[in-house]
Structure to design on (582 residues):
């Protein structure tokens, strides 16, 4: 009964939704200090290739591979973040887009290591590895009434769910703290923030590097979920796609990119006929959103509205309860 | 002596905005910096807070040469400013604006903030409490939850003062705090600045409202075309021939005409 409900295809789509949410957050974090970075696809690629190559050639455990990929992307984030500090708005966007292309071309041309545009296959698969190690302890998915395939995709899904929830929790906590206030102050008025004693160099590089770490982490996860990566996965299209998640969903609160990634990843799956026109649609979304609602669908006001509505409903409900008592 | 300006010069290309200006401010006094528009007063503020580097000269704060430091380090040392054209964080609430001001007097980093350690929570409570006190101090006690952009003009000016005070400065720089205020607001501002002085802060004030400056300041320096043309007590300044000619004189003639 349960087993029939678990469809590996749906689980895989759900897993990609989660990875895309993490990628959306990787744009949102630098943006929360006013830095528009299009480098997420590049950092994602670095994380993916680093982890894939280490696990393939050195038989490193996946966990260590992912950590290494995340670190490499983070270090690169600091290295890119420092010289681009002076750049603002569209100039930073162009430089970071250029960086992404450099990374992609590197993957295409460094054939001895990356196998060029053919890509890397045979990357250790996260779900299968987990199943294999569980087998050693005498575990069998059949005991849960699941097929191997179902178990694998279910494990990946829940693992990613926990990771994504942790990342959202982490950045929500950071947002409502001294660090979050410094980010917001820098976004609203850099000069005033500096005059109020905020080390803007430190916080801008911190935000940029956090974005790189998150993107690299998502990339490493991507490599071990798909088991196959190629330079095309981290090209210009991906950079724009990740940006659209945040532009569409909203860049003021973390729920913006979360919603944007969820909606825009599911939509082409649900409405199959749209899938082919995906990038056309992205272009359209950017134009319409910039003209009509530049802060994205979900902003602070919308959240407050929702909060006050649920509060009212609760009051009503509470009052009704008291009456019945 | 809290602040000592030694032969400060600032050139923008060929234009000399401030040239060879020296003055010093005693602890606990209210020092006025006046002069016609474009005399270099705000440039002087930007030099003291390191927003611009000095072309030559030195700025000494509490016996330490602070020229060449980053603006945020100046704030850490104990100098904080307000802006002539209000620069609050518009989308943040009044309370959050003041809490940002306390940034350099608190320490919680990313990990402490995310995992809400005991010291972090204590620090947040302290910051929040003090921000509330400062809002009450400037008369905005009931406006903590209002976004800064939705406050009235005079309230925004006072919020800027509270935000600057949040970094616990020894020297507070106020850039035209009375600009655009009506008489009642100006007299409230007078009381507020006097209250700030009583708390032991030294105040350096740029202001065009002459009655306010004369009532408020212990000493005054006058700039004209980037040069200091006079320094002294309000009565000395009012009777100084150069000043009357350059600045106040024009006003008096208009008044008597």
């Amino acid at each position: 009964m349960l087993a029939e409900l678990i469809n590996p295809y749906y689980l895989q789509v759900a897993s990609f939704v989660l990875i895309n949410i993490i990628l959306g957050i990787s744009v949102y974090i630098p943006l929360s200090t006013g830095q528009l970075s299009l480098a997420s696809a590049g950092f994602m690629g670095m994380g993916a290739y680093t982890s894939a190559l280490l696990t393939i050639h050195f038989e490193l455990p996946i966990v260590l591979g992912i950590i290494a990929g995340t670190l490499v992307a983070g270090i690169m984030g600091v290295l890119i973040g420092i010289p681009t500090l002076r750049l603002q708005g569209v100039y930073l966007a162009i430089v970071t887009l250029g960086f992404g292309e450099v990374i992609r071309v590197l993957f295409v041309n460094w054939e001895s290591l990356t196998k060029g545009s053919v890509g890397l296959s045979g990357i250790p698969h996260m779900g299968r590895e987990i199943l294999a190690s569980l087998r050693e302890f005498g575990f069998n998915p059949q005991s849960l009434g699941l097929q191997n395939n179902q178990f694998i995709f279910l494990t990946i899904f829940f693992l990613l769910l926990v990771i994504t929830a942790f990342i959202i929790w982490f950045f929500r906590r950071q947002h409502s703290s001294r660090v979050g206030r410094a980010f917001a102050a820098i976004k609203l008025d850099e000069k005033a923030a500096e005059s109020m004693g905020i080390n803007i160099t430190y916080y801008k590089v911190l935000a940029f590097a956090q974005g790189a770490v998150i993107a690299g982490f998502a990339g490493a996860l991507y490599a071990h979920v798909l088991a196959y990566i190629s330079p095309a996965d981290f090209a210009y299209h991906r950079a724009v796609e990740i940006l659209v998640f945040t532009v569409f969903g909203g860049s003021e609160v973390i729920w913006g990119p979360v919603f944007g990634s969820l909606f825009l990843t599911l939509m082409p799956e649900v409405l199959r006929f749209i899938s082919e026109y995906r990038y056309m649609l992205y272009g359209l979304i950017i134009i319409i959103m910039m003209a009509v609602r530049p802060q994205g669908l979900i902003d602070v006001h919308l959240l407050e509205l929702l909060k006050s509505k649920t509060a009212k409903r609760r009051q009503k409900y509470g009052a009704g309860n008291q009456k019945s008592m | 002596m809290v602040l000592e300006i030694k032969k400060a010069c600032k050139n923008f290309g060929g234009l000399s905005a401030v040239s060879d200006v020296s003055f010093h401010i005693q602890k606990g006094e209210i020092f006025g910096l006046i002069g016609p528009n474009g005399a270099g007063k705000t440039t002087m503020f930007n030099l003291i807070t390191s927003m611009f580097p000095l072309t030559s000269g030195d700025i000494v704060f509490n016996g330490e040469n602070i020229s060449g430091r980053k603006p945020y380090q100046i704030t850490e040392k104990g100098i904080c400013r307000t802006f002539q054209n209000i620069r609050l964080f518009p989308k943040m609430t009044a309370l959050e604006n003041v809490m940002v001001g306390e940034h350099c007097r608190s320490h919680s980093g990313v990990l402490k903030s995310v995992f809400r350690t005991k010291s972090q929570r204590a620090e947040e409570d302290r910051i929040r409490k003090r921000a509330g006190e400062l809002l009450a101090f400037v008369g905005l006690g009931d406006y903590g939850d209002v976004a800064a952009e939705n406050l009235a003009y005079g309230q925004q000016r006072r919020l800027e003062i509270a935000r600057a005070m949040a970094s616990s400065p020894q020297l507070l720089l106020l850039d035209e705090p009375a600009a655009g205020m009506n008489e009642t607001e100006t007299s409230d501002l007078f009381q507020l600045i006097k209250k700030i002085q009583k708390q032991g802060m030294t105040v350096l004030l740029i202001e065009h409202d002459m009655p306010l400056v004369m009532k408020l300041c212990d000493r005054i320096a006058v700039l004209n075309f980037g040069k200091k043309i006079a320094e002294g007590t309000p009565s000395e300044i009012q009777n100084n021939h150069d000043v009357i000619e350059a600045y106040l004189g024009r006003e008096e003639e208009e008044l008597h005409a």
